[in-house]
Amino acid sequence: MAIIIPMAAISCILSLLLSSLISQVSAQFNTEYCDNNKGNYTINSTYHNNLNTLLSTLSSHTQINYGFYNFSHGQNNDKVNAIGLCRGDVKPDECRRCLNDSALTITQLCPNQKEALLWLNTSKCLLRYSHRTIFGVMESSPGFYLTNVNNVTEADKFNQALSNLMRNLTVVAASGDSRLKYAADSAIAANFQTVYGLVQCTPDLSETDCNRCLDGAISEIPSCCGNKMGGRVLRPSCNIRFESAIFYDQTPKLDPDVTPPSPPPSSFTNTSPKESNNTITIVIAVVVSIVVVAVVSLLGLCIYLRRKKARKSPTVNQDDDDDDIEISQSLQFDFDTIRVATEDFSNSNKLGQGGFGAVYRGRLPNGQMIAVKRLSSGSSQGDTEFKNEVLLMAKLQHRNLVRLLGFCLEGRERLLIYEFVPNKSLDYFIFDPVKKAQLDWEMRYKIIRGIARGLLYLHEDSLLRIIHRDLKASNILLDEEMNPKIADFGMARLVLLDETHANTNRVVGTYGYMAPEYIMQGQFSVKSDIFSFGVLLLEIVSGQKNSGFRHGENVEDLLSFTWRNWRDGTAVNIVDPSLENNSRNEVMRCIHIGLLCVQENLTDRPTMATIMLMLSSYSLGLPIPSEPAFYANSTARSLPATSSWGHSSRATANQSAQESENENSITEPYPR
């Protein structure tokens, strides 16, 4: 007996089967990671509620049309940070749908993890969240990859074309702005075969970090997708993809400026071209008139306030110094506010003492913790260093620089107010026989790269070119996640972007970290900071102070010990015994970089940009270093007795930071 099945039923069955197949295929391309090592939350807890609130509203910001969302919700340990990133060619509506679907999916796949990540729908969008800081942090783990099963023909030519394409795309993507770091293009490989490529970073990364993330992802192609017609490498901070067929759409064009929220629709919808031109002319005339009146009024107000200030305090000697600080008046704190915050500068809140004066912990009325430097009346540093630090730090913003919140001037009081950094300074850990064990190699390498990023910003990426002149372990502060922050800019110098070096009659800094051309001739440049960085890098690797490396019963200066063991092939003697052996190649590379930084000839030292490449790209070969400065007789060489250099003429070149005069050692950073 024949069974007759209606065509409508067959169509329905086929549709259901096709839908199920598509669903299974799509699910295969959903890549999730639920991190149980970063902690868990309980249902209906504060963290859980904050997470639900953040995920439900993440993509509701309709003014964002560039596919990148980074928001936080909550406070302290219950704070949730989330990033949503859509592929650069995905349209805004489709992006928001993808992220909304991701928000539902990720909580089902990771029901109670405080940190999770999801690539949804063939990696068209990424959603990740965490209780820790993830904004502006380059992360390459966890990593995933997908591979096309088909092999290419003429693999060598295909791989060469692919390599060139991906490197070119990396340059384009990394140079993008804070809205979009994305690039896609194609290249011709063998037999007129086309290879299509796409690279993308989360736009909160710096250009250097984006380059580093993409370089790392591209370097995985041979192991994951070698000689294949397609592949993808997915990382939390970046992703790449290549195929032999086009898979992306045209990239939307973004306005040169950050797109503001859309204005309400105008009630005039049928304006003729002539009326439009007249309207524009009238608007321009009105705007120009308003601007002129505003400028004239502002100038008059400034002149009035300055004269009034001069009348009120005609006998104050620091008027000229204060004039420059007027550009940062928005940063000025009331003295009584700081006095109350520090409990009248009580000893119980005192964090340390340095050349500048004492450093105190404080709490503002809004609950924010602060660190306050108070210039002491007998300080060898004074108004010049105070003004220098205010004017420089007000212009500098980077996650690896300590953040200046403001300052205070009242009578003879000089206060600098900084963000409070809870984990003290690097020297507190690295030179302590017990505490250094808390810094495994992964943590130390993170600190090294963070310091390098901060210096790169000072030397090349900021609008100003800043030479720190006192980079040392005690001037590297560590936040709650042990991220390094360069501190103490009282002795820093601003130079023109096209200047290679400058000279000074007043050599300041800390012996052991100071470059030879600076000590002997008063000549400083970015290369003198490089020298200090090299010494600091070797201190981090060895866990020993530069002034006295102890190996068994023997004590010698760090540079001599490092060079002698490097030359003799026993560089393992330099490494801190508390470190494990599983990162030995990386440790040896850091010793090599450190020796390149402390070469006597400043032209032989690498730039910070090159150092960043050395730290991030292991395919980059390193030159052979020459022997370091002061190696030959480092314990005997002393400074020339030049009276104009003040106290510095009395100190020897191998003095430690603790032995230097206040003239040569900057304020000990907070907290101590």
UniProtKB/TrEMBL annotation:
Residues 253-273, 639-672 are annotated as: Disordered. One of its GO terms (cellular component) is plasma membrane. Residues 1-27 form the signal peptide. SUPFAM superfamilies: Protein kinase-like (PK-like) (SSF56112). Gene3D superfamilies: Gnk2 domain, C-X8-C-X2-C motif, Phosphorylase Kinase, domain 1, Transferase(Phosphotransferase) domain 1. Its main location: membrane. It is a single-pass membrane protein. The chain crosses the membrane at residues 280-305. GO terms for biological process: response to oxidative stress. It is found in: Membrane. Residues 345-630 form the Protein kinase domain. CDD domains: Gnk2-like, STKc_IRAK. It catalyses: L-threonyl-[protein] + ATP = O-phospho-L-threonyl-[protein] + ADP + H(+); L-seryl-[protein] + ATP = O-phospho-L-seryl-[protein] + ADP + H(+). PANTHER family: CYSTEINE-RICH RECEPTOR-LIKE PROTEIN KINASE 29, RECEPTOR-LIKE SERINE/THREONINE-PROTEIN KINASE SD1-8. This is Uncharacterized protein. It comes from Phaseolus vulgaris. The lineage of its organism: Eukaryota, Viridiplantae, Streptophyta, Embryophyta, Tracheophyta.
